[in-house]
Amino acid sequence: MELSPKTISLISVFSNLCLGILKVVFGYLFQSIALMADGIHSTLDVFSSFITFLGLKISEKPTDEKHPYGYLRAENIAGFIVTIFLFATGAWIVYESVERFLGENPVIFSLSAILVTIFCIIIQEIVARLKFSVGKKFQSIALIADAKHSRADVISSLGVLVGLALLKYFPFADAAVALIIGLYIIFEAIFIGKEITESLLDVANKEIEERIRKICLAHKIEIDSLKTRKVGNYNFAELKIKLPLKLKLDEVGKITKQLEERLFNNIPELKYVVISVEPYDVKKSTIVGFLGKKFCEEEGLERIGPKKVGRRIVIPVKDNKLFDKFGSEFYLLVDIKEGKVQRKEIMKNPYFEKDSPKGVRFVKAVRADEVATPIIGPNAKQNLENLGIKIHLVNPHQSLEEILELITKEQENKISNEKQR
């Protein structure tokens, strides 16, 4: 069974709560203030792990009209809150160590307290390693931050253990170790906080940019501008490419689609890619394409569906009703000419896959002029706009008849205005 970041966060919440209570109870029984303090510290980690779990849970919510890029920043915010608690914990340990140097909060030697501390260290280290492993696998900033917090707990408990063991020989042993631990935790909090803050501020990912440039260079695509940013454990890229002015729309669409697929296949960290085109004049009429052919030699776009009559509108449907997403297994094809419906037919999307609907590919293959949909992702929107396909964002509660009536009236008004001119 594969462990997910959410599962690990829940395990962490449970283990920290149990260990915190165990340390506090045994610290009280054996009159060990250091163990009690470490127990309170572990109990506070329950809140930290719970915040991480909430961040991961919220970040997995699907995109909607108000949040077209999803809720990925929730994980960054959770990681930032965890970092604040990490810093506060380090500052608290430094404060406690200074108090012990001044002779306050004395620690009483106890073999039982040492054994309990050793048991807690083992459990804490196991949980910390699980967090690191799963966090790196899923590239979860929040979980890795929480893992470092758990590792700080292990180091803190080791300090308590050393202090308890040397207490007979050096009264200030636990205070000295605690001071070092506290400063280390503060350093870790600053380091992690810097990484998370950069993510929240949309700092560019230079490594991803370099990989994008290499892919474009390998396929002879000139980049006019390139921007990247990281949200949660995903990367976003926006690039503007230069293509010859003489290229047809279908050729431009094919180039951008192939480039998008290359980027996603070679850079799995990418979540979204938006490609726009900046045309420029060239003296030569041909350039080398992705497959080593010249564009003038490449085959045209694949064509499916009935012969088009007038302007073609494509609408995603399910069970003969408007579907709430652009990517669909079935589409309604409507041909309108001179303000009148010439054809209305539901067609199955032959390219449909469960995790990849291939809506843009279908729209291009049926030679559509317009698309009517309640919601559409930024990549699909950009691709359709690059091809000159008009997009109507419609109310998800509207019927197909109401949508067609609106589009038909719009075309009638357009024809009427053109005649008046």
Furnish the topology, listing elements before pairings.
Elements: H1 5-29, H2 33-59, H3 73-101, H4 111-137, H5 141-166, H6 173-200, H7 206-218, E1 222-231, E2 234-244, H8 249-266, E3 270-280, E4 311-318, E5 321-322, E6 330-337, E7 340-348, H9 359-365, E8 370-373, H10 378-386, E9 390-393, H11 400-420
Parallel strand pairs: 2-3, 4-8, 8-9
Antiparallel strand pairs: 1-2, 4-5, 4-6, 6-7
Q: Could you explain how this protein is built, in words?
A:
By secondary structure, the chain is α/β, with parallel strands linked by helices. The protein has 3 domains: 5-200, Alpha-lytic protease prodomain-like; 206-297, Alpha-Beta Plaits (2-Layer Sandwich), CATH 3.30.70.1350; 311-420, Nucleotidyltransferase, domain 5 (2-Layer Sandwich). Helices cover 55% and strands 16% of the residues. It has helices at 5-29, 33-59, 73-101, 111-137, 141-166, 173-200, 206-218, 249-266, 359-365, 378-386, 400-420, and strands at residues 222-231, 234-244, 270-280, 311-318, 321-322, 330-337, 340-348, 370-373, 390-393.
Give the overall pLDDT as a whole number: 77
At the fold tier of CATH, the topology name of the largest domain is: Alpha-lytic protease prodomain-like
Cα end-to-end separation: 69 Å
Q: Can you count the helices? A: 11
**Residue share in helices?**
40-55%
Percent strand equals 15-25%
